[in-house]
Records
---
Amino acid sequence: MPHIDYYFATVSPYTYLAGTRMEAVAEKHGATITYKPLDVMALFGRTGGTKPAERHESRKALRLQEMRRWSKVLDMPMNLQPAHWPTNPAPSSYALIAAQKAGGGDLGKLVHAITRRCWADEENIAEDDVIRAALQEAGFDPSLADSGMLAGAEEYARNLEDAVSAGAFGAPFYVVDGTEHFWGQDRIDHLDLHLAGKL
């Protein structure tokens, strides 16, 4: 049974644009998933990347155009300059970590519920009430937003180290069985083909 380590950031526009397509591909091929939310800005610094705010103006302009185009291609509403971005991704990431441990809901739906609130719904995903609503939407106990903070912080930091060790350098990033790497929501089709034995 193939396994996917899924490195992502709750503040990443491309994690939002991934929706739940990766989960559908994993289910189709019987793959398991470990969700590994991390600090993508720190990951950029560790792996030779540049934070969006520090990029050349031409790169910033293309990023916005790409986001606009992909939102239309995928028919997903998106505010290219959301009111609450950047924001602190740690609280929502801790909640995801707690939800993965607790079980009982849909983790893919939870990632999407959180990222959608940032990139389409103009909500601050660092706020407890917003995180609780996302947890409830995805079938989890909303009180998970308030539990396991220390363990969540430790795993959040460990996810960053795991990403660097695994060769991940952006979000979303999918590593299959520790060897095959797929970077970006635009590579989910390639992930599908790989799991089908065609790539």
---
Amino acid sequence: MTVNDDSFTNWMHREEIAESMIPIIGKLHREQDVTVLLHSRSLVNKSVVSILKTHRFARQIAGEELSITETFPFLQALTTLDLGPSQIDLGLLAEAHRADDRGLSVAEFTAEAVAGATGDNKIERREGRDVVLYGFGRIGRLVARLLIEKAGSGNGLRLRAIVVRRGGDQDIVKRASLLRRDSIHGQFQGTITVDEATSTISANGNEIKVIYANDPSEVDYTAYGIDNAILIDNTGKWRDREGLSAHLRPGIDKVVLTAPGKGDVPNIVHGVNHGDIKPDERILSCASCTTNAIVPPLKAMNDEYGVLRGHVETVHSFTNDQNLLDNYHKADRRGRSAPLNMVITETGAASAVAKALPELKAPITGSSIRVPVPDVSIAILSLRLGRETTRDEVLEYLRDVSLHSSLKRQIDFTTAPDAVSMDFVGSRHASIVDAGATKVDGDNAILYLWYDNEFGYSCQVIRVVQHVSGVEYPTFPAPAV
């Protein structure tokens, strides 16, 4: 047998294991509300190749590929346990078991590591929480995809309704078509049907009512059987407490804004300050995509090195706020053709840092250039640190943060030598550290942070909604703080 034959045989063996993992992962998710992860990446509803690629990804961070033959026994061990709702990371289990010197079997170690999710310790399965989307544009449709994807057993978040202004004949058909097909993010994973008579979209069995209204005051959500719901405002039309309070109609309990909030509206970046949300807070903001991209790395750098001052320059994909061709726009420069020009504009992300990360006292300035790409942006974060360091030290630290810390769902890390923006379409992280572009000179550091300003941000929004709804389940083994 040749070396190539050996390699192919090995590949087929790993494919066979991945195939056997899929029904186990699905059953745990549907029946026990257990989400199986691999280094913070969900394996639920993933293909054979996707599972294998996720294992291979670990090589970029940990220095070596994680073998599926190593993680599969831990998954099998989970099936023998009385698990409650939780997230369980096979990558962390395998890594922790390797480092353990007590000689425990995989089954013994797994039972100990996830004890907080078993037996008397397990969380009871909660009632599903209704969610309403107000607006159905770029972020609204991606949030809808994520809500449908995460419906799982039906005991989590349930997308019940979408509120929009009627756009004309076949409005619901066209909106469903935009949910089904996306020029950037591809086809919807599943089936979508439309019932025009009842104004309902059915997506993977989720019945979603389309409500037509010109203003929040026109809707009584209880008339549609919706109660205690979280409303996600994707329009950005109202940004202060007074305006957003108009959404607090019958059936709505909380309002989450997918844009920077003004005044006393809390700006939340999941992973950084979501734990500060007061239980009785009914209105909050998820800040901007750029704020979500820069605040987690800023926190990480400030925690380790101290940050004395900083500047962020964002090279941002164009958005619907700009014009396709030159035309009037109330803002300077944004009236010029978006697909033809680089457009200098302002960003509020730097000033928003103080709201999400008040312990950072350093002045942070910012500016932005819109460029002719439809998605994925990069933030260039230039920092003056509190002590001198080296490039290798900073990269090793950020690599570890992306793998082991409480920010691992926010910060990703890539060493790919020829990475470009399109490589990060669909990233679920708030930002990705580009190791190859990082520069450090004494107490000066420049970080290049890629971010999918549509999908990565939508994932952050979902995390905030999960947190305030009470369906954000604990992760095992527990990540380092």
---
Amino acid sequence: MKKHHSGGQRPQSKKPRANVLEVKEQEELMKFLIAQLPHKNRNNIKSLLKKRQVLVDGKAITQFNHLLKPGQRITLESASAPIARQMRGVVVVHEDKDLIVVNKNAGLLTTATDKENRETVFSILSNYLKEQDKSNNIYVVHRLDRETSGLIVFAKSKEMQELLQESWKQSADSRSYLAVIEGKLDPAEGTHRSYLFQSKIFKVHSSQDPDKGDLAVTHYSTIKSNELYSLLKVSMEPGRKNQVRVHLQDLKHPVIGDKKYGSKSNPIGRLGLHAWVLAFKHPVSGKNLRFETSIPGSFLKLF
């Protein structure tokens, strides 16, 4: 009787399987891993987390205090997840089959321009998705200025791009920004309206003449302030190019680091504008999605 057990017929022997652990009770990730991996110390485990080699139900987790639930499966990858290499300046906040929400650093363009073709959020995400499947594509839904940090959403299909852009105007009130401005607003909160238009040199201007541009409405409230600066929460209707920057210049309290629109100070070496909260209804699932980032540390240091 012949035995067909040659090594070449075992795919497992070619590619070692990842180590999979099952969670039995609710506990913090670090505590679980220390108990399950007696041959590794805390620093070894922190290194695994930092390199995104610890997956909880298939998703890379980096927080050591992440709370585990019974039934979840922990996978320990033998190599760093490729996302850690690729995503310089971009952190994935949410991803599903239809869309992807990321938090971008200041200094990254959303997409390439005629004048500039360096690495962008679009190119980084395109590479990330194509590494998973070469047929994957990414589509721009909205943009953030290069020097603005924060939340931005991309679609994974042309249909989803159109659905998101259709609903964008309705969800404008669910997008909040943080702005650090020069000085202190009086009153501390309010609304500013004007008509915006763009010059031939791509600078946006503000006017009270309805015939000159498109109506833009900006709501603002002060979160913190001192003698030099104020931290504002800002929302827009409908959300036009450079709207926050132009309107705060109108109010004689420009965004710090915004030389283009009247700022004379740059205490943190970047524009003091951050896309803080993003909320919208998922066009396919109908689920209400809401994402909020932490306030940039450089903003808080001023207060």
---
Amino acid sequence: MPRTKGDHEARRRDVSAAVWKVMATRGFAGLTLRAVATELGATTGLLTHYFPTKQALVEYALELLEQRTTSRPRREAGEGLAAFRAALLDILPLTPASTESNRIWVSSWDAALSDSDLSTAYARKYARSRDRLREQVAAAQELGELPRDDPARIAAAAQSFVLGLVVQALFAPAAFPPERQIALVDGHLADLTARTNSTR
């Protein structure tokens, strides 16, 4: 009896879940066809139908990670500074789910740095994120909530700050629990708004 489209989609969802589980528990270094097959309870031969090479598996894993990242729930925020703050907090590992995603992202950097195409894709991803932050900074400047400095510079500094905080929180979660991460972001924003107030 031939497999239906529904069967194929169900199998693909199973494969996606297995790929995600391997990334979450072993990181990108442990992402192999054999590991995914074991998690799936299948043979590597079956997986080659989906991923003929390790590169194809890595590319799919990164695509899956991007999909999960962009589709996750976001904090509700207003506009201006509140929206900028919410966007920064959404990057941080403040919940078990966001911690898992961030662990996978950080473990994927090695794969991206060793592949020129992936490096280019990652550079574009972080540039898009900076562009979104820049737009929020510009909106906050229009409301008089942030200083009239170059919004691209403020966005780049904030992105660099939170990505560094992500790494510290992943390696030392006891030293950087969620409440401290939030306090550090609020301190960073307070420094910015203090500059706004000093120029009035």
